[in-house]
Amino acid sequence: PIGGGGLIAGIGQYSSNSERNISVIGVESNGFQSMACALKGEDLSCANINKTIAEGIAVKRVGQRTKEICQNVPI
Description:
Elements: H1 6-16, H2 34-40, H3 64-72
Helix pairs in contact: 1-3
């Protein structure tokens, strides 16, 4: 799960600098699509914020630097 995007940004950054052909795939649940919305430039409404026990996926807003990295690496 992507959550705030820090781990996938780091892995994506590393893989883009690697000579290996690496594919990085991140997933988000329908109710918590913070990175997908951020990359599309859409506002995120986490209406389901209290409907998960996995608080790591319930991110209201991803970090600006994390978003920039994810926009520039093949993830």
